[in-house]
Amino acid sequence: MTLGRLLALLGEGVSAEALETHLAVMQAESLLDPPTATAARSLNARLREASRREGLLRVLYDTATDLTGIRDVEAVLKAIVRRTRSLIGSDIAYLSLNDYDSGESYIRVTDGAATALFRNIRMPLGEGVLGAVATGEAPSQSADYLSDQTKSHLESSDAAVAAEGVRAIMGVPLRAEGKVIGALLVADRHAHSFSSDDVALMESIGTHAAVALENARHFTEMADALARLDQAQRQNLAHVKALEELSSLDQRLMETLASANSLPNLMLLLAESMDSEVYVVSPMGETTAGLGANPDFGHPAALSAAELSAARTLPVPFTVKGRQYTVMSAVAGDQHLASLIVAGDISQDRLAVLERSALVLSAALLFERTFQDAQYRLQLELIDELLNPRSEDTEALKRRAGRFGLADSIPLVVRVVGVREDQRQRALAVLKRHGQDRHGITALHESHLCVIEPPTPRGGTPGAGRVADNGQSIVDALKHQRIEASVGSSQAVTGFSRLAGAHAEADAVLRALQALSRNGEAADRAALGTAGMLLGAMDSPFAAQLLAAQLGPLLDYDSRRGTQLVLTAWTFLENDASGTAAAEVLHVHPNTLRQRLERIDTVLGASWRKGGRSLDIHVALRLWRLQSAGIGGPLR
Q1: What is the set of domains in the chain, with CATH numbers?
Q2: Mind telling me which InterPro entries this protein's record contains (predicted)?
């Protein structure tokens, strides 16, 4: 009966103090001898130790399960120090990682630490408790670290330990895959030695912690790798989609290139693909085609960007008047043909579209240039044959002229265009564009530009009662491109055989304009006024009689004395009889001009400046001016 009570007490997990009370009562009643009481005490102690170990193992299992279930490295680190501090019952727990490049172990995460100094300790490997444990040789501890002379000390780490109030420290190394990766430590703010059980528990925790930490690191690396693979897959899919779109665009671009109106179709396709305003601009900044407003691409920023794009064969962004554009120049060899300009900031895939479109534009412009060159050669040959008629094969000439809307049976006008020699080729290109949608031919003839076309009313389209265009539209078109031109036009003639005479008439009108200092104007013989009438009488006896009657004494005076009184009289009357203006044109002092005018008064009589005689003198002076400029020959 007594033994049964004793076993029941041991099975219930009675405490040592309660067991002693029961044993004393039993011994006092002589129910239990001393050897049996001693055996009961020993058995109870073993049962309690086994129970404690079972509980500890359960806690370690739970800790290991928790740690290995966490996939985030940062979360694992925090869980390790939190569990360690709880299991050991310490004031502080912390974990360090080794930096073998610098030869140090640095505190990575803490639980219970109050100061930043302590949380940022870095210890050389082998120094202090932290450095000694981090080498991986064995666990290490110090009952009172700051006064422990068996440990090496660093001034910076001692200051951090003192600031935190730490005295007792104990730690174990963390090993993973055969390598020491750091240390796990606990610390208390009172001096004491940690028991062997505490050290063993720390080693167990450290083993689980190292495995959990490596698992979390591997999982993070794997997750990062999967994320990179996913991103790469998305990028590949996007790249494939972009390639498919570019392939479709290439097909549409080739179809555009093969179409009759390649440039307009290219502009429509680009505007659709870019979802923005698109322009084709010449190397000089002139907009030749565009869908949208017409900004000034002659701006230095636009021209510089186009030149840079042509040199690098890459898109170049630029800004004009606060608006963003991107230019991609179309080049052939080292020749800058034109530029594609897109408004707004465009994405990378749209840049690829722009680059491909520039290649198609280059091909389209080369095709167009080849066609235009062929057309121009035909016009060059045709204009030479029309103005230098030959008897042979007139029917073939009529057929070739008919391709450009010219016929032997319709009225035609010849226009001679005068421009500076350095602007002649550029003016020719402008006139080619100007006459694209009109009947007629334009070419270089005898060192000047010549146009043969049906007469057109001003405004460009036929209309009843409208005044015929005397070439002013050509002057305006060239002026728009900053080219000053003068245009002499013939009267309309019918029949190819009369074109040579019409050309001579137009050439005489142009030279008359230049002789009369009417540069930048367009005129025919009728528009020249008195000068036009005089052109028809240049080689008649009347012309000589008029000059002799009105200017004979003055011409003789200049001839004998080498003076320029005739020129002075001409300049004076051409400037509305203004002495100041005439002196400025002649580049002489007003007093000098006054003296010349008085001499003319002496030679011709003072009445030359007044009334009807002034008109006669002025007409004679115009005839003299035309003759002195070398304008002559009968006009048919």
Answers
A1: 3-58 (no CATH), 69-222 (3.30.450.40), 259-366 (3.30.450.40), 388-457+467-528 (3.30.70.270), 535-629 (1.10.10.2840)
A2: CdaR-like_regulators, CdaR_GGDEF, GAF, GAF-like_dom_sf, PucR_C-HTH_dom, PucR_C-HTH_sf
